[in-house]
Design goal:
single chain, about 400 residues, mainly alpha, Growth Hormone, Chain: A, 16 helices, about 0% strand, MFS_Transporter, MFS transporter, membrane, MFS, transmembrane helix
Length: about 400
């Protein structure tokens, strides 16, 4: 099928629906705690977070699967594993089995996580690539929003039935199997392309560290918003859920319009995104009302949705030839580490500067993001001047 057809693009983008679906069952933790009274709270919370470990490990191993199976079959295998493992808790009430199934769910996603991005950078370029990268990010936000709402609906039928939401994985599985035919596979040149050894260069590693820091700083909004509301007396913890939900919604809007935004801002989209995130955090820190906190969260979320897709586009540009998928995997490792280490990094910085409140955390992260904005502006501008001179 022609890569420029709407059905091909929709099928390619559909696999991103479940990329960030792991945490959508977090609201079930209190109910699971009741079902497993012998397990500690941290052990129950592990059910929500362990998919990230599966993703982290299998993002690194995905190239081995691609070598033997090809890209399309690797995506299909990952989707199939995620589908089966995702719905296992519906039928099993054993803690260990559920924990293993959650790890395997993340492993399945990890197999095609990098391909969800690298296939776009390989098949498309220019404004079309930017537009599809924005839509790819939007698909993740749409999937997360829809599944979160469905979890809430299915909860009335018992927490185990809420895992039925992962049956949505059958949709991208069917679409990708039927309507995505990759050029190299269609021409029978897959074996030849697989013999090219992929490698990672210094710019890719620098970008990985950069993404790790950005995500670690940004994830503070997820960790500290509820605490900030309580400490300041502005609101209750449950209010934070609706505030954080606004971040997902603006992510969808920005993702859909990303192509046009990138066409206008070009490389400035990253420093502007980081600048907006930093300002949003400062607004939250200074807030004295729910409306002001929400405004800061929306600004930060909107700006994050500008910066994140650009980093995936950038890694496709700086990666060595024929190494886009490996480089994207390395970037994803940095992102997952950033999210995972966010509480640790935040705690370290708070101790370093002698600060302890949630407002202090927003101040530290906000200033850090503003510094990264200036740094990215200088680096990208220098890069642009070098390209023009050449």
């Amino acid at each position: 099928m022609n890569k420029n057809s709407v059905l091909f693009k929709a099928s390619l983008l559909s696999i991103s629906l479940v990329l960030v679906a792991g945490p959508v069952i977090s609201s079930l933790i209190p109910l699971m705690q009741q079902s497993f009274p012998n397990q500690s709270t941290s052990s129950i919370e592990l059910i929500a977070t362990i998919p990230n470990f599966g993703i982290l490990i299998f993002v690194l191993l995905s190239n081995i699967f691609i070598k033997f199976l090809g890209k399309k079959n690797t995506v299909l295998l990952g989707l199939l594993i995620a589908l089966i493992a995702g719905i296992v808790p519906v039928f099993v009430d054993n803690y260990t089995v559920i924990l293993v199934s959650r790890f395997l769910f993340g492993a399945g996603i990890g197999l095609f996580n990098a391909l969800a991005v690298s296939l776009i950078t390989e098949l498309y370029d220019g404004d079309e690539q930017a537009s599809l990268m924005g839509l790819q990010a939007a698909m993740g936000s749409i999937g997360s929003t829809v599944l979160t709402l469905l979890v809430g609906y299915f909860t009335r039928f018992g927490w185990q039935n809420s895992f039925l939401v992962y049956a949505i994985t059958v949709l991208p599985l069917i679409l990708f199997a039927l309507f995505v035919k990759l050029p190299s596979e269609a021409k029978g040149t897959e074996e030849k392309s697989e013999k090219v050894k992929e490698s990672v260069n210094a710019p890719t590693l620098v970008l990985m560290v950069f993404a790790l820091i950005v995500y670690a700083l940004f994830f503070v909004v997820m960790l500290k918003t509820a605490t900030h509301l309580v400490e300041t007396g502005i609101g209750k913890p449950e209010t934070a859920a609706s505030i954080l939900g606004s971040i997902t919604l603006v992510g969808i809007v920005v993702g859909v319009a990303y192509g046009k935004i990138f066409k206008f801002l070009k490389h400035l989209v990253l420093p502007i995104g980081l600048l907006g995130m930093g300002i949003g955090f400062i607004v939250i820190m200074l807030a004295n009302s729910i409306a002001m906190v929400t405004t800061g969260a929306i600004l930060a979320g909107l700006s994050f949705s500008l910066a994140a897709p650009f980093m995936f586009m950038l890694v496709g540009q700086v990666a060595p030839k024929n190494s886009t998928n490996l480089a994207t995997g390395v970037l994803l490792v940095g992102i997952n580490l950033g999210v995972f280490l966010s509480p640790t990094i935040n705690g370290f910085l708070s101790k370093l500067f002698g600060m302890s409140t949630a407002a202090d955390s927003f101040l530290i992260s906000g200033v850090g993001l503003l510094i990264l904005s200036v740094l990215s502006f200088v680096v990208l501008n220098t890069q642009q001047k070098k390209q023009k001179s050449n």
